[in-house]
Specification:
The chain contains seven helices and nine strands. By secondary structure, it is an alpha+beta fold. A seven-stranded mixed β-sheet has the order 1-2-6-3-7-9-8. A two-stranded antiparallel sheet has the order 4-5. The longest helix has 22 residues. The two termini are 26 Å apart.
């Protein structure tokens, strides 16, 4: 797998391709305004990659993107909320297709080494590690079974550092429920790094973070 992601990786969607959805940045500028213009989406993507995605990729070389930019039609089709950061190129959902690292390890690494972000969500840990199906390969995302992923959002100059969990399993929410957390459906919000093991295994390298 390549050492760096490309814009092509970020806008690629097997669902969009299979359903003939035009997932090109800027396609929704008439309905969403200039914030959804191609120039704005690409600018947002550059910040997201520089500050979050590429440092994570350096630490987890097999990292893949399950969902990056989504146009309105794609976002609606996959059940995304109408105000999703995906619409503006401000978020990537990432995972390890080889199953070497769990999303918990990726999530905890982010809490340790990414100082500024808009939101990070540990999504569906109860589903287990992702994998490459028999006959597939690491480069072809259509052959990956993505069970769990980490949603990392970066909005320039808006560093909420909101830490969240998404799960359909009540027991998992109970583990992380604290007086400072809040529950909204499948989400528990306002977690803090102290609730997790941020002592990263020595097998994971630290990134060359860019200020």
């Amino acid at each position: 797998m390549a050492n760096k992601f490309t814009i092509g990786d970020f806008i690629h969607s097997d669902y969009a391709n299979n359903n003939k959805i035009d997932n090109t940045p800027g396609v929704d500028v008439d309905s969403l305004g200039e914030d959804a213009s191609a120039a704005e989406v690409l600018s947002n993507t550059v910040f997201l990659f520089k500050k979050c995605v590429q440092p994570i990729k350096e630490a987890f070389p097999n990292l893949a993107i399950s969902s990056g930019f989504r146009c309105e039609d794609l976002n609606s089709a996959v059940g995304g909320v109408s105000y999703s950061n995906h619409l503006y190129g401000e978020v990537a959902d990432v995972y390890d297709p080889t199953g070497e690292f769990s999303t918990k390890e990726i999530f905890e690494w982010i809490l340790m080494y990414i100082p500024k972000f808009y939101q990070v969500i540990w999504e569906y840990p109860e589903r287990g590690k992702s994998r490459i199906r028999s006959g597939g390969n690491i480069e072809d995302t259509s052959t990956h079974t993505v069970n769990s992923w980490v949603h990392i959002a970066y909005v320039h100059d808006d560093f909420k550092n909101l830490i969240s969990l998404a799960s359909e399993t009540q027991n998992i929410h109970q583990i992380y429920k604290k007086h400072h957390t809040s529950r909204m459906g499948i989400y528990t919000h306002h977690l803090n790094p102290g609730q997790f093991d941020t002592l990263v295994p020595l097998t994971i390298q630290t990134p060359s973070l860019i200020p």
